[in-house]
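Justification of computing resources. Each target in the renewal requires a structure prediction run like the one illustrated here; the chain below, 135 residues long, is used simply to show the kind of job we budget for.
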Amino acid sequence: MAFGNFDSERAAPLSEINMTPLVDVMLVLLVVFIVGMPLMQQSVRVELPKTASTQKAGANTRVTLAIDAAGQLWLDERAVGEAELSAELARLAADPALELELQADRAVRYEAVARTLAQAREAGISRIGFITTER
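Resulting structure tokens:
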């Protein structure tokens, strides 16, 4: 019973490279770089100069517009009707740095959200964001 051929004439040196250790080392390096990357980005310490100004330059005005499950509109926690909302949005649109944050209940129909977005665009508000919760 012979399991191998020990013929010395046909025996040639093994010329293949074993890739398993190379792949192991590369995976370890990949994990080290993935874990270390956030630390490298936060490691730069810069001492910023201090100013005498007490007001933030270019501070954005944020206004929250909420639509509850019943379809009621709330502008900065104050109930408003659709007609009053148009007038308020037109008044607020005078500020070019205004950011409108739209917060709609998940039960609200998209029709109400689209109508509110259209009112904001007609008033001249171009910076609109949606407030959501993480899953």
